[in-house]
Write a structure and sequence with these properties.
This protein has about 425 residues and is α+β, with helices and mostly antiparallel strands. It has two domains: about 260 residues, FAD/NAD(P)-binding domain; about 140 residues, no CATH class. It is about 30% helix and about 25% strand. Strand 9 and strand 10 form a beta hairpin. Bound molecules: flavin-adenine dinucleotide.
């Protein structure tokens, strides 16, 4: 075993050829499935293609790991069959997860409803899950990618599944959990490499798209705003119709807009773009004032000021400059510009940015789409192949920002593992 901090957490002792359960993927969903199956007395092997388990966890919540949330409503999970995810959540919810974490030594901290490990270090969660696996005797092999899975379909056969892993001899097991993630953030290991094998079992994979991802704009003029951060309300416009709305801080970058509200809307934007619809963001930079109130505020400025100077007192200076130059209001004094102030205000209340794409899986935090839930039982087992289970982001569930994606990974992993523990 290597000696650095992260890889010393892998657990390669006592490797056998055959197990009750093999889990493919040592992400949060796979580790939770492994722990719960093992607690039920099953022998478990986890295969992980990256050099360490739980590689993505270290990057979550900016290294702090926002693993669940105290607030929950029926908008936090998205996908074609969200009721499936809510039913699962009822069986292993945020309180159950916080309790589970406490049981493996992770004390939690609540920051405005967002739940983190107490020391706000993602590493704590990774370590605790690894130590629990070690305590239970779960075997984990890293740098080992499962490349093929076959089944003989014999109901009570201990060697019902055969797994071929690169750089290893094959393994057999009675039951198998596929917890390989979606396609988001492939540097952390989730890249869709097992999709072909999953489809061969007869499973549909609904189109996987980047979600929780920055959106790119068509018009290069917005590059001038790079670095501008603004609290605002944004409305996703699809074919000129208002759809979802979000409020919070957005950030203009060289060719894209990021920030939580944009990320939250992105899964709908990417879908609409795929459907060849017109997509734009309508940005209201003053959501708590109407146009008249905003005009009044500007007109109350020193009448010798230019409109640009007056605007820069109430919004970001770069944004003020952008609005006046783009709409021909340069150098005009507040006192001379009654109608033009209205024009500037209408832009500040509804800046329209046409969207032409997203920043792709490399920048996405999660994947929308995945294994079709119509072919999955409530216990996460396949309706098509006995002994085949799925957990986590590979399934057609994606969550909003706030800890809901990790909650889903742990919830589905828990249900798959506890089914197998029986
Ligand atoms: C930068 C970033 C920040 C995030 N922050 C948060 C946050 O704060 N809160 C939140 O709730 N969510 C967050 N997420 C999302 C969350 O991390 C994921 O939804 C979650 O990790 C999914 O868990 P999973 O176990 O299903 O898949 P993954 O975590 O993707 O794990 C899948 C594992 O399977 C392995 N694998 C894939 N194919 C094979 C194979 N053939 N053989 C062996 N192993 C394989 C991969 O290497 C990987 O380790 C964030 C994501 C990113 C990228």
């Amino acid at each position: 075993m290597k000696k650095d901090n992260k890889s010393s957490l892998t657990n390669e002792y006592s490797i056998k050829k055959s197990y009750d359960v093999i889990v493919i993927g040592a992400g949060p969903a796979g580790m939770m499935a492994a722990i719960t199956a093992s607690r039920g007395g099953k022998s478990v092997l986890v295969l992980e293609q990256k050099d360490i388990p739980l590689k993505k966890i270290y990057a979550t919540g900016n290294g702090r790991c926002n693993y669940t949330n105290l607030t929950f409503d029926k908008k936090v999970f998205r996908g074609d069959r969200t009721e499936f995810a809510y039913d699962a959540y009822e069986r292993f919810d945020n309180k159950a997860l916080i309790g589970f974490m406490k049981g493996i030594g992770v004390i939690s901290k609540d920051i405005s409803g967002y739940v983190y490990p107490y020391n706000e270090q993602a590493r704590t969660i990774a370590q605790a899950l690894l130590f629990e696996c070690r305590r239970l005797g779960v075997s984990i092999i890293c740098s080992s990618r499962a490349v093929d899975i076959t089944t003989n379909n014999k109901k009570d056969d201990q060697s019902r599944f055969s797994v071929i892993a690169d750089k290893q001899e094959g393994f057999t097991c009675r039951d198998i959990v596929i917890a390989v993630g979606g396609k988001a953030s492939p540097t952390h290991g989730s890249d869709g490499n097992l999709n072909k094998v999953i489809r061969r079992f007869g499973h549909e994979i609904l189109l996987q798209r980047p979600a929780l991802v920055p959106l790119t704009f068509e018009d290069k003029k917005y590059s001038d705003l790079a670095g501008v951060r603004l609290k605002c309300k944004i409305t996703l416009m699809i074919d000129d119709k208002e759809t979802e709305k979000e409020t919070g801080e957005i950030i203009f970058n060289k060719d894209n807009i990021s920030g939580i509200p944009v990320m939250q809307l992105s899964r709908y934007a990417t879908k609409a773009l795929d459907e060849k619809k017109d997509v734009s963001l309508k940005i209201d930079l003053f959501p708590d004032m109407n146009e008249d109130e905003l005009c009044k505020l500007i007109k109350e400025s020193d009448s010798d000021m230019s409109v640009s100077e007056a605007l820069s007192l109430i919004t970001n200076e770069k944004m003020a400059g952008f609005v006046v130059s783009d709409y021909g209001l340069n150098e005009i004094k507040v006192s001379q510009a009654e109608d033009k102030i209205y024009k500037a205000v209408s832009v500040l209340k509804a800046l329209s940015v046409k969207i032409n794409g997203d920043c792709g899986f490399n920048r996405a935090q999660v994947t929308s789409g995945g294994v079709d839930l119509n072919q999955i039982n409530a216990d996460m087992g396949s309706k098509l192949v006995d002994g085949l289970y799925f957990a986590g982001e590979i399934l057609d569930v994606d969550g909003t920002c706030g800890g809901y994606n990790l909650q889903w990974a742990f919830t589905s992993g828990y249900i798959a593992g506890s089914t197998l523990a029986k």
